[in-house]
Design goal:
This is DUF1365 domain-containing protein. The protein has 253 residues and is an alpha+beta fold. The protein has one domain. Helix content is 18%, strand content 38%. The chain contains 4 helices and 13 strands. The strands form 2 sheets. A 10-stranded antiparallel beta sheet has the order 9-8-7-5-2-1-13-12-11-10. It has a 3-stranded mixed beta sheet with strand order 3-4-6. A hairpin with a 4-residue loop joins strand 11 and strand 12. The protein is globular and about 50 Å long.
């Protein structure tokens, strides 16, 4: 497994306005070269990409159309959105299913050039809770800064009922190495409202490291789901303004 790995570290959220609210927690994620899926999970009792297993990569949890292999679906999506024809490897930063539960607030597809030296595009596949809807943001690289870049983007998708839609994102992306960093900032009318990000350290995928992750984070999907609702309750208690889902508030005439 030349290119796939584990990443372990910390996720943080920091809300700055209208009230201050922050939290952080530890987790691990898989960084999967999509050409190595079968190799990564081969001969591992508790892991699989093909059969039922306690910890499973399920193709249907990711980018449509599901009848295509995931790498082809990514290439198709990028070509349709940007006109770019990807020719290099594609690597997915994600959390696989734990005991049948899938919980990925966001998965990232790192799309490299043919020489596997620079990022061409990063896709951020966002899932909202509890609606289970998905949206994909396409983040093009900065040719003047190939290993690290910042990209502004208008918010296009309802995620949190404690965040309005009239916002702009500022994505900060870095080339994954032994350390993986990425972050997003939310702005509204020039005011910095919110920051979130990850700081992770790379680990090789070995039987020992996979076992350590299972012992440290046996119910990670459930922890993420519970954390979302717990933080929502805390925001409600702090009387942060509530923003209903914009597509579910329309009343027929």
């Amino acid at each position: 497994m030349k290119n796939s790995s584990l990443y372990e570290g910390e996720v943080y959220h920091h809300r700055l306005h209208p009230v201050r609210h922050q939290f952080r927690y530890r987790l691990y994620l898989l960084y999967l070269d999509l050409s190595e899926l079968d190799q990564v999970f081969a001969n591992r009792w508790f892991w699989s990409a093909r059969r039922a297993a306690p910890f499973r990569f399920d193709r249907n949890d990711y980018l449509e159309p599901h009848n295509l292999p995931l790498n082809k679906a990514v290439k198709q999506h990028v070509a349709a959105e940007t006109g770019i024809e990807l020719t290099g490897p594609i690597r997915l930063l994600t959390q696989v299913r734990h005991f049948g539960f899938a919980m990925n607030p966001v998965s990232f597809y790192y799309c490299f050039d043919e020489a596997d030296e620079q990022l061409e595009v990063v896709l951020a596949e966002v899932t909202n809770t509890p609606w289970g809807e998905k949206h994909v943001y396409v983040l093009l690289r900065d040719p003047d800064s190939p290993s690290s870049w910042t990209r502004p983007q208008l918010k296009q998708f309802h995620v949190s009922p404690f965040m309005g839609m009239e916002q702009q994102y500022q994505w900060c992306i870095q080339l994954p190495t032994n350390e993986l960093k990425l972050s997003i900032e939310n702005y509204e009318e020039g005011t910095h409202l919110f920051s979130a990000g990850m700081k992770l350290q790379r680990l090789p995928i070995t039987g020992w490291n996979l076992s350590k992750m299972l012992l440290r984070y046996p119910f990670l999907s459930g922890k993420v789901i519970a954390g979302i609702y717990w933080q929502a309750l805390r925001l409600w208690w702090k009387m942060v303004p509530f923003h209903p889902h914009p597509q579910r508030t329309h009343q027929p005439d």
